[in-house]
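Sorry to interrupt, but I need a hand with the structure work. Could you write out one complete protein record for me, on any chain you like? Could you add the entry underneath, on a fresh line?
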Amino acid sequence: MAKLEWTLSGKGISILDGGMGTELAAMGLEMGGQNCLSNPDAVLKVHQAYVAAGCDALITNTLTMNRTYLESHGMDVDVRAVNLAGARLARQAAGQLPVLGDISSTGQMLEPYGEMLPEACEANFREQAGILVEGGVDGFVVETFVDLNEALCGGSGVPGGGAETSRIGRRCRFRPRRRPSWATRRRRSAGTGGCRSVRGWGKLHQPVVG
């Protein structure tokens, strides 16, 4: 945890794990957090591979595993069961490394573009975050939102969020997608996978996949 805290203080870089869904797809499985319940051994195997590769933290396989998304998409997945399983699988693989709970979109639009109220959106993420904490996560990653306002609801819904999260969101900056370098393309073609990096606190960069 010490290195991640050092990074979040703005003093350095931590290497996170890489994509989960693509690795599950490579095993012939459907992408998604539901695999924490239906194929836990596969999820655990991916987590363990990232630890072996030298990452500094793991992210739970709980992307979009919030109540609103599950119910609106007709997924027969229990929100409590899948988030507990996701947190515990990552915790099992991580050992002494920190585990970050993955919080992502509801799949709905906030008012005035949709019908969802910010208060309901925040409560939705608060429920998921509470389950992830129960499962043993050390912190959170709030990612993959179309609407920055929904992302801020996600940040406010996690423990320690609120006003500070809003200040971070207002000064965030996004790194535009660039053509991968020759070395990166070669690593991909060799099937060596990739990783995500986080630099600094309050600087929300697009994941760097290589």
Residues 45 and 200 are 29 Å apart (CA to CA).
